[in-house]
Amino acid sequence: MTSAGAYERTASERLRSARSLQCRICLAEDEKQNLISPCKCRGTQANVHVSCLSHLFEIMNTTTCQVCKEEYVMERKGLKAWREWSWPKPLSESWEDELDFRCAVLWSLFVARMFYMFVARGPTEMFEKVSGVLGDGKLYNFWWTSFALNMVYYSSILYSVVDNWIAANSAYSWKDNKGKNVK
Ligand SMILES: [Zn+2]
Ligand SMILES: [Zn+2]
C-alpha cells in the first residue's frame, strides 16, 4: 500500500469518528441524535445511550455520575412491559438478606392464610383455632406478641423489596444536559 493510500484511510477514519460519538457506557459509536449528555462530563465522557444509562441505573442503583458527581435528572415512566419484568430479589446478596427474603415470602403466605381464615370464618374461629393449638396461657400471649413483631419486621422488608422491584422494573427517561452546561 502506498503512503498516500494509508493517509486517505486515516483521514476517512478521522472523518468518521468526528461525525459519530461514542457512548461511554457500552463504548459503541453512534450518531449524535441517539446519545444524550446527562451530566457535566464533557468530551469523550459526555455521551451515553438512554438505554445504557437505564441499565447502569438498574445495576448500580444510583442516579449520580461517578465521575463528575452530578445528579442525573430522571423521570419514571411507569412500569416496563410485563414480559421484561424480573422476579423480586433479596435486598442484597448477603446470607442475612437472602434468609430474610425467604422468611418474608413464607411469612406473607402465612399471613394470607390467616387473613383468609379471618374473612371466610370470622375472627372468633380464628382466635379459637390459635388457642386450640397453644392454649390460653402465656404461650398464647407470646404467640400474638411475636406475630405482631414479625408483622412489623417483615412488612418493612417486603416494603423495601417491593420498592426495589418497582425501581428495577420501571422505564425511565433521562434529561439531556447539553443545553444547560455548554456556554
Ligand atoms: Zn451505549
Ligand atoms: Zn458526569
TrEMBL record:
Indicate the transmembrane segments per the record: 99-119, 139-162
Q: Which UniProt keywords apply?
A: Membrane, Metal-binding, Transferase, Transmembrane, Transmembrane helix, Ubl conjugation pathway, Zinc, Zinc-finger
| Highest taxon, organism lineage | Eukaryota
Q: Where in the cell is it found?
A: Membrane
Its record classes its membrane topology as: Multi-pass membrane protein
Which GO BP terms, alphabetically? protein ubiquitination
Q: Which InterPro entries match?
A: Znf_RING-CH (IPR011016), Znf_RING/FYVE/PHD (IPR013083)
Gene3D superfamilies annotated for this entry? Zinc/RING finger domain, C3HC4 (zinc finger)
Q: Which Pfam families match?
A: RINGv (PF12906)
* A GO MF label: zinc ion binding
Which Gene Ontology CC terms are recorded?
membrane
Q: Which residues form the RING-CH-type domain?
A: 15-75
Instruction: Identify this protein by name.
Output: RING-CH-type domain-containing protein
Species this protein is from: Steinernema hermaphroditum
